[in-house]
Design goal:
Elements (H helix, E strand, L loop, with lengths): L3 E6 L8 E8 L2 E3 L10 E7 L5 E6 L7 E4 L5
Antiparallel strand pairs: 1-2, 1-4, 2-3, 4-5, 5-6
Amino acid sequence: NESLHLTLLHPQHQDSDRSVDLQADSTGWHADMNLDDGHDWIVHVTDEKTTWRLRGRLLKGQRAAHLGPSLQIQ
């Protein structure tokens, strides 16, 4: 069962960055973690082998982020 890797980057304090493996279940991908929602987070999601990466921003007070490819191929 493959997992995804989630990295949450604090916009100002590197020592507050968070990283966790997401596990699949019948409703999607999840991880149990407490997260300070008092500020934005920069979000990166990769596969186990880091062959691809999605990025986005989790806005203050939100529970979902819009993710897109890190590279824009034209």
